[in-house]
Amino acid sequence: MNQAEKAKAFGALHQKGNPVVLYNIWDAGTAKAVTEAGAKALATGSWSVAAAQGYGDGEKIPLEALVATTRSITTVNDLPLSVDFEGAYSTEPAGAAANVEKLIDAGAIGINFEDQVVGGEGLHPVEKQAARIRAIREMADRRGIALFINARTDLFLREGDLSKHAGLVDAAIERGKAYAAAGANGFFVPWLIDEGLIEKISAASDLPVNIMMRPGAPDVKTLARLGVSRVSYGPGPYRMMMEKLKEAATAVYAAAG
Length: 257
Hints:
Blueprint (H helix, E strand, L loop, with lengths): L2 H10 L7 E3 L5 H9 L5 E2 L2 H7 L10 H14 L4 E4 L8 H13 L4 E5 L11 H18 L4 E5 L16 H14 L3 E3 L6 H10 L4 E4 L7 H6 L4 E3 L3 H21 L1
Parallel strand pairs: 1-8, 2-3, 3-4, 4-5, 5-6, 6-7, 7-8
Helix pairs in contact: 2-4, 4-5, 5-6, 6-7
Pfam family, one: PEP_mutase
Organism: Rhizobium altiplani
GO molecular function: catalytic activity
């Protein structure tokens, strides 16, 4: 498939009640392993990509390094690749679109694009985030790429008290509808794990809903029943692999005396 075909194929994988499962990767090697495990598509996690190169999360990894990582994956792997692009390294619509175009040039066919103020406080106003999404959509359309914009809201991620998540659902639905109108293709609500709230958002959303697996989250079959269209694993795979590596290395050095 060429890039345009990959973008369309990736979009088609998002089916309500039959979610595409994305076990997040961070480089070409992990892309190969996950592909061989049976993946239908690939997705990076921003935390993992940054940590693998010695950086913290929150756009600490230089944009050029992220683009290079994207290109290294797409050069050796034919599956559709979505890149976790945080806030697109720009608060302004034109800058965000220009930076996303660099990922398209590197072979990506999708992005996660979040509404929190990276390195700042709170979330961007709905209208501003919608304007950024609209600029990205228009750029991708000009390129002839059906870029899958997975619009992420950090309402739930920013609220550590799970008992308060129910009070955020209406605001989340409002953001999802605004992002859909601006040209987004998916709606990502990380940190939400309550089954009733997930079902409510899935029913109300104009977009396929993405849930991130984390401790306490429903399993994939349950998420499918709740109407979810996409399940991702975020930094979980990286953290698990690093723990296994440290355990193995510790055993080696302990045995060596």
